[in-house]
Structure formats: C-alpha cells, structure tokens
Amino acid sequence: MFTLGINAVFHDSAACLVKDGIVLAAAEEERFTHFKHGKRPIPFSTYELPYHAIDFCLRKAGIRLKDVDHIAYSFDPYLLIPPEMKEAGSAPIPFIPGKTDLPGLHNPWDNLFYSSIVNAPDMLVDGYPHHLQKTFSGSSTSDWQWHFVDHHTAHAASAYLPSPFHEAAVMTLDGRGEIATTTYGTGKDNSLERIGQVNMPHSLGLLYERITTHLGFLHSSDEYKVMALASYGKPAFVNDFREIITLGEKGQYEINDERLEERFGAKRLRHEEFTAHHFNVAHSLQQVLEETVLEITGWLHRETGKNNLCLAGGVALNCVLNGRLRDRGPFQNIWVQPASGDSGTALGAAMWVDSRERKDAGKDFVMDHCYMGPAYSDEEIEKFLQWAKVPYRKMERVAEETAEILAQDKIIGWFQGAMEFGPRALGSRSILASPISPKMQSRLNEVKDREDFRPVAPVVMEEEAAAWFNGASISPFMLFVYEVSPDKADKIPAVRHVDGTARVQTVNASQHPEYYALLKAFKEKTGVPVLVNTSFNTLGKPIVCSPRDAVECFWTSPFDALIIGSYLIEKEI
Ligand SMILES: [Fe+2]
Question: Which of 134, 135, 190, 518 would disulfide-bridge 355, Cβ 3.0–4.6 Å?
Fold first, then answer.
C-alpha cells in the first residue's frame, strides 16, 4: 500500500512516500525549484503543490500518481471553515481586503486560503507542470483516497512513529496549525492520543518569528540566526519576556500584549549593524523560551509518567533548547524529528494515514538517518561532467585523498549519496573543512557570505563523540548542543561557539559509509575525528540537489575543491 504525504499549506513544501510503514523517499520542493522554503507562507501560494518532490518520490518507487492508494495532506481546512460556508459550498473573496468586512473571517484572505486547500486534490490531477507528465498524467481523484490530516497530528506522528520508542510522551511546538500551536500527547505502539493543546493566538513559535522579524531577519526562515545571536547577549530583557509569556495550568501558556517597539525599540533593518542591544533581546527571548518549555515539559512528564519524549514542530529545531531539555528536563530520553519544520509533516501525515489504514500495522520503521532524497550513481555523475566539459579526475581512494585535501586546510564541496530530508546538510550535500585552524569559522562564513556571528558545526565519528564533546552520545541529526571537552577545545577551535558549545552531528558507518570513511581517514592523518560541516549552498539559496547544482555552486563560490561521487574537481589558483 502506497501512501503519499504532502505538505503545501504554509512553507517548506515537501513530499514523502511510505509503503507499508516504511519511508521510501522524502524531499523538500525547494531542492528542485531552487526557491528557498518552496514558497513564502502567504495565502496566494497555498495552491502550489510540491510537484517536483512528489515526482521524485514516485519515480524512486517506480510508480505513477495513479498507483498511489492514499494521499495525506498535512492540514485540515474543515477544522476552520465555518459550517454555513461548508453548506453553501462557496465563499466570497474580497477584491480589496483592507476595505472589506466579511463576516466570520480573522484574515480577509482566509477564504482564498481554504479554497486553495480544499481544491488540492484537483490541483494535483490538473495543475502539474507540463514537464512532469510522465508521473502525473492519467490520474484522477478517484484513483486514491484523500485525507486531510490535522497539522499537529502530522507533526506529532512525525515525532513519534519513526522514533526508536514504543511508548513516549509527544510534544509539538510550532508556529501555528489550524487552531493549535502546541500539542501534548502520548504514543503507544502505533497509536497516538492527544491530551492537551494550546491554541492560537498563543504561540511560542509565532513569538519567536516576530522577534526574528524585529531583529531584522526573515521570519519562517532565519530563526536559527536569532538562536546563534543569543549566545552573545545578556539577560537584560527577561522580565519583559516573562511578562509576554505567562504560564497557566496543565501546560497552558499565554502570549500577552507584546508591544515590541515599546519594549525593545525600533525594528532593526537588515543592513543595520548588530549591537549589544540586539544580542540581549535574542538572549532574553531564548532564556525565557527555555524556562517556559522546561515548565511545560515538567507538567507533561508528571501527567504522562513516560520516560521518553518525542518532539517536533519548528521550535524543536532550536538545538540550544533541546540541549537544555536533555540536561535539565525530566525525560530520560528525547528523540527529535530531524525535519521538525513543516516539511516533516509530509512524512508525519503519510506515516499516520498508513498506520491507520493498515489495521494490523506494527511500529516497524525507525528513522536512523535522513538520507531519503535523490542519489546519483558514479556513471550519472561522470556523464554529466563529460557533457558539461568540466575538468575532473577519478579518485581511487576517495576517503584518503579527500582527507589529505582537508588536512591542507582547503574547503571542499562534498556530494555523496542520497540527499538529506530536513533543513540540515548532514554529509550528503555538505561543505566540509578541517576544524583544527581557529580561522576556519571566519573563513567559512566569508566563503558562504554569512554573518560573522554564525557558528559552524562539527561532525564526529559516533564512537569518538563522548571523548570530544561532554556527555555526547548518538546525535545523527545535529539537533542538540554539547559542550566541547575542555581537554580537546584547542584541537578543534573552529567548531567551538562563543559559549563553549557545539551543535554536534555523530555518524556511523551504516548511516553514511562514505562520510564515516572520510572522518576515519582524517583521524588517521591528523589525530582528529572531527570535521566542520556546513550546508552546500550559497547565501539565500537552498542546499544543492543534483550534480548540476553542485557544479554551479562550486564554480560560483570560493571553495577549493569539489568531491562528487568518486570524482575530484579542483580549482587551479
Ligand atoms: Fe507546522
């Protein structure tokens, strides 16, 4: 039984294909269209479906759209559409929203938004781009059963169903869904039960987004920059944030009158310098977010009595928060969905519908890695390089030769195996460098045209993690910070953030053999089992997907070498 999951409602459009409980493929639309996050989260873009990501998933399974049994869309518009509109089967859409007063609407574009979602099945059949006919044509809406899945059920399913646990508390922390912004529940075997939720307009995720905007960044995109900025600040505004976020009973919280300009001064414009003031706002937000989430997880633990916690939703990408929950929270084990933003709801919705439809379904799939996207064979890569007249050399010993290049302090593009699902590059589409030189962090930020304050993250051989990072265990998704071991700090200065921590990825040979072999070879050469890993992209662009993307990015950026499959491309300087 094939179940296709789709996220298209706000941003991070994505698709995922599940067959009998096993995830066969998953990818974000942005990697194919080169438009970051797929689209901006505005009502006009809701009708756009992730056709290219769907096409990839279907082609990977060797099927066409008409062969799919179920389609799971990670938003349920019927939770929002007023009953009278459902009955009427139509809804007015204003020409000039600001001047129109239609009853029952929070936002004048709501009807357009609902209509786009309700029409998604027809858009899938009729609206696909011309060049994707091979997989889409010949399908009709009667070929499959369509399911609108509550957005937070999709997030919760993405957190629990692919987790290694058979019993857990489940929490989603998000910007928004239909009504809920935060949910609490439990998972047991393949079932999920919701035990509480916080509703709009109270949302930790939306507050973080608004502060992101206030600090001059792009909301629904740059929240991780605010998290990085926080390390440089002082808790000067914690009392303001404690007034803004107030806690209630049973996991409830409220976001009160924010008055951001009054409290924190004028909004920073993008080109303006960062000052201590901006660092302090970010720091205070981060601190009060952590306090709040520790409180609500305390309640969730008491309420459920579980040892394990599964997390998803955009706020769960905050790896500093996750580290705090691990160190100071009540749960023994925490598993965070690597695609915790909205792209992961494609996976969650598909797994949820799959497990509901297969009555005897067990919980058999554990997401040990996220390499679920497109992969290219050496033959395909070489064919492209020859066609494009790119000078290259085939390497006989890829890991050893690449380790030698890295040991010379060169910065490389690393393109190996299936692309990652989720926002992080984790060794398939990465830029890699040696962590040994203290200058490497600023060099990488310069190469990638990023802000100076941005840290770069380490990848470490799984069995070496505990020796190099305090308390580090298996962490394949770069979702937790750990302290750099003091006795190792001077060996890997490039990855140590200003607060002494690092956002660690661990890798073993079964998760990514080529990546692991490279780390092993680098260790043999230098004694250091750690590399710097950052995403293979340039400013404002999505991570590369295809060999063409990789070669284009390489030749328009100051990297020294590109290792793509078994092939080496170097720049002569
Ligand atoms: Fe979401």
Answer: 190
How much is the pLDDT for 226? Answer: 86
Residue 178 CA, ligand 1 centroid: distance in Å: 9
532 alpha carbon to ligand 1 midpoint, in Å? 30
Ligand 1 centre distance from Cα of residue 341 (Å): 6
Q: Are 237 and 286 in contact (CB under 8 A)?
A: no
What does DSSP assign to residue 112?
H
Q: CA 79, CA 514: separation in Å to the nearest integer? A: 46
CB 185 within 8 A of CB 156: yes
Its pTM surpasses 0.85: yes
Q: Report residues of the chain scoring pLDDT below 70.
A: 97-106, 573
Q: How far is the CA of 485 from the centre of ligand 1 (A)?
A: 35
Q: How far is the CA of 208 from the centre of ligand 1 (A)?
A: 14
Q: What is the pLDDT of residue 103?
A: 59
| Angle, vertex CA 437, rays to CA 436 and CA 438, nearest 5 | 115
Cα–Cα distances (Å) from 288 to 198, 208, 276, 281, 516, in that order, read 18, 11, 18, 11, 38
Q: Could you report the per-residue pLDDT of 316-342, keeping only the tens digit for each?
A: 999 999 999 999 999 999 999 999 999
Residue 556: strand, helix, or coil: coil
